[in-house]
User: What shape does this take?
Amino acid sequence: MRLKHVKGAHEKIEKSPYVLLDYLDYKGNYHKIFKNDYPIHLEIGMGKGNFIIQKAKKYPNINFIGIEKYDSVLVRAIEKVEHEELPNLKFIRMDARSIEDVFYKEIDTIYLNFSDPWPKDKHEKRRLTSSFYLEKYDGIFKELPKIIQKTDNRKLFEYSLKSFINYGYKIEDISLSVHEENFQENITTEYEKKWSEKGFPIYFVSVIKK
Assistant: This one.
């Protein structure tokens, strides 16, 4: 999918108080950014930000960090919070492959919402639920690893379940159709809203590793 260029995106990202530009300086010490010891939840591939912004509004006693590698997408999230005051929310422009260089033993929960399925076998390592990434996550979790995934891609969902279980995770909660079941307190992403309205099932799983 080709991303549309957004004029002035780079400048907006550099000026936004929500974006951490010097994030490498805080590895292992992100509590200093938020000036508290609340849990830190991380969304990998936050897209246009609706999910993590709504989470930050709803749970002021949790700190939220969203990472996104594309300027043209990240800037849309920034625009949503330009007139908001959310001290428990930060964004980072980065690629998930570098996640071990950015965080260390400080994340409580990871959200993987509608990640790229990378359907070809030769691209398996690029899937955010592959053992390649699960091993990376080991080094950034603070204590009990917890991952929450949503996707509309059944093959990715099936792959992820096998990957989680093979890596030692246990299923805490699961749904094969979030919207039909009115599942939990579901906060939708922009992508999720579009496809669920067309009748596509949204798969959900929460896993933990003790």
